[in-house]
Predict the structure.
Amino acid sequence: MKRLMKLTLIAASVVTAFAAQAASIGSAKLELKGSVAMNCTIAVEPTAKANSLDIKDGEVGTTVGTVTEDCNSVTGYAVTITSANSGQLRTNPNDATAPLAAYKVAYSDATGDISSELKTTRKEATFNSVNKLVVDIAANAQAIAGSYADTVTLQIAAK
């Protein structure tokens, strides 16, 4: 019996020691947070053909640029294509009566003339999406001599 009492006393001492130690343990919480800024970029790499379009014999399905899109918007984004000369290659952009060559553009799922603008949309974030910018120019056997030019602008914006 003495032995049982001794064991009970030792067990009680051990439990009391652990209880005292547990009561002295505290806790704290640390909340971790982070954020990612919206980032949408677009780049165009012109092809050699962009600077040597055939106005007289025309162009059909001619790739004039390779475009790379990157946008981390969870709701997607839009690419808008506009032209400084309303979709016309002109010999003098400041003269509305100057010789011109109208053209059409195809980019991803957007095709047509860019007298105002063309737009294509993406439904989600996309990274390193590469697309071709393609033009069609009607042949004009009576084209007037000169250098014809236009500037196409591609703009990317998150939705």
About this structure: Residues 2-23 form the longest helix (22 residues). The beta strands are 40-46, 59-71, 77-83, 88-90, 100-107, 110-113, 118-122, 126-137, 152-158.
